[in-house]
Every structure is written in structure tokens, then in C-alpha cells.
Write a structure and sequence with these properties.
The chain is an alpha/beta fold and about 140 residues long. Helices cover about 35% and strands about 20% of the residues. A five-stranded parallel sheet has the order 2-1-3-4-5, with helices on both faces.
């Protein structure tokens, strides 16, 4: 039996494609987390506490399709949406203005902070910056 999660520590909800790039990044953060299902037939994720969303950006540099469909489905649940406190997104700087666009779109729609952006797999500095930023942010929610 696992101990109950410490609610004073950051909680992360994330989406990762089959490449698992986002999953690897989130695992390096070391916080309690849950993954948004990859396939529509998988059981839906329902959260009941505040979280920060980590998502990749899709769309190949276009606005349309920047937010993964699985993330949209997750956020279409009013309860899931209500617990989101911020967004961290990944992207590819080759896509210019569309770099990490999913985070900006979600943050604007949910009126939460677009907390951090990192490229592709993220660097050790990205992991440290996100971890430290999440700990500070979590103290104020």
C-alpha cells in the first residue's frame, strides 16, 4: 500500500505521446503525477485536486492542432478544468511563433499562468528551473 500523496507538494498532470518525451521530462521533476491517456479507449483521467498541466505542442508550427486532442478532451471535463493552476509546455523552436504554443493557448483559455516552456526533451537546466518554479508556485496556491 502506497502512502497518501503529500498535498503540500506539487501535483502534475501531463500528456505524452508514444515517444514518451514529456513523460521522461515529468519523471525527472520527481513530483506526484498522473498521465492523460494516450488512446481514446483507455479509462479517462479525473482529478480532484489542484495540478499543473505539462503538455507538448502539436501542429508542426500551425495554430490549428497545437493542443493535443487528448488534452482538449481532458480539459473538456469541467472538474478537471477547474483544478488546473498553471501550464508548462514543450515545443520546437524551429516553429518560431508557434514554439510551445499549446501552453499559451491553454493558459489564455483557462486564465492560468503559462509557467514555463522548454524545447523537445528539455535540458537539465529546464528540469531544475521547472522543479524550483513549481515548488515556489505551489507554496502560494
Amino acid at each position: 500500500m502506497q502512502p497518501a500523496p503529500d498535498r503540500s507538494d506539487p501535483y502534475v498532470v501531463y500528456f505524452s505521446s508514444a515517444t514518451n518525451n514529456t513523460a521522461r521530462f515529468v519523471s525527472k521533476l520527481g513530483f506526484s503525477c498522473d498521465r492523460i491517456p494516450l488512446r481514446s479507449g483507455d479509462p479517462a483521467l479525473h482529478v480532484s485536486r489542484p495540478y499543473v498541466l505539462v503538455t507538448p505542442t502539436y501542429g508542426g508550427g500551425k495554430v490549428k492542432g497545437a493542443v493535443p486532442k487528448q488534452v482538449i478532451a481532458f480539459l473538456n471535463d469541467p472538474s478537471n478544468r477547474s483544478y488546473c493552476r498553471g501550464v508548462i509546455s514543450s515545443g520546437n523552436t524551429n516553429f518560431g511563433e508557434a514554439y510551445a504554443l499549446a501552453g499559451r493557448i491553454i493558459a489564455r483559455k483557462l486564465n492560468v499562468p503559462d509557467m514555463y516552456r522548454y524545447e523537445l526533451l528539455g535540458t537539465p537546466s529546464d528540469v531544475n528551473n521547472c522543479r524550483e518554479g513549481l515548488v515556489k508556485f505551489w507554496q502560494n496556491i
